[in-house]
Design a protein that fits this description.
This protein is mostly helical. It has 10 helices and no strands. α1 packs across α2, α4 packs parallel to α6 and α7 runs parallel beside α10. The chain is globular and about 50 Å long. Bound molecules: 4-amino-5-hydroxymethyl-2-methylpyrimidine. 4-amino-5-hydroxymethyl-2-methylpyrimidine (HMH) binds next to α4, α7 and α10.
Amino acid sequence: RGSLGFTDIWMREKHHLLYSKATHHPFILSISNGTLHISSFKRWLGQDYLFVRQFIPFVASILIKSWKEAVDNSDMDLILSGLASLNDEISWFKKEASKWDIVLSDIIPQESNQDYSRFLESLTNSEIDYPVVLTALWAIEVVYQESFSLCLKDDSKTPPELLEACHRWGNEEFKQYCCLLQRTTDRYLEKAPINVVAKAEEVFVRVLENEVKFWNMSYDVF
Ligand code: HMH
């Protein structure tokens, strides 16, 4: 397979089209060309706050798996750093919500959000293999990293009041985190039995589908 790992083959070759649908969604493109309706942004903000609250226990379940299954301490350190930044992220959502007059306790999860949460919850099961959940974590993070970094490009017209949000996921440090997650994931996939690799690929695709639906939910006028 040359020098490409499984994750690169999936994102750049086999599932490239779905991957670009998730990373170049109209919601993101309209932030970067300055045409997003602020009501869409606010809807996304409220829904994503609820998503992150469900995402935290999912990441915690991976921390437990890294404790049981990792070959060295670096995995647990990496997952722990991810959990620590989710702590900051929750604070950021609260601050950002008050800036936009959003009452977070009033937000009701939309169907796509509930579906995504249920999917993550199914992956917290102790029977789900470590390489599979690493794949999911990496995919979830890399979609946001790649999406929001588009909004920070020199030629983008992102409104100044949305820059802070874009910077949260588009920054260089988050990109490094995603690269480390990718490398770790590939390392385990290399050694995994073929059925586990197949399951990881299926989970990768399902993450991308859920990400597209999540953007649709935020973007659609309803
Ligand atoms: C829907 N996907 C969604 N929300 C997020 N905050 C991330 C990924 C990245 O953390």
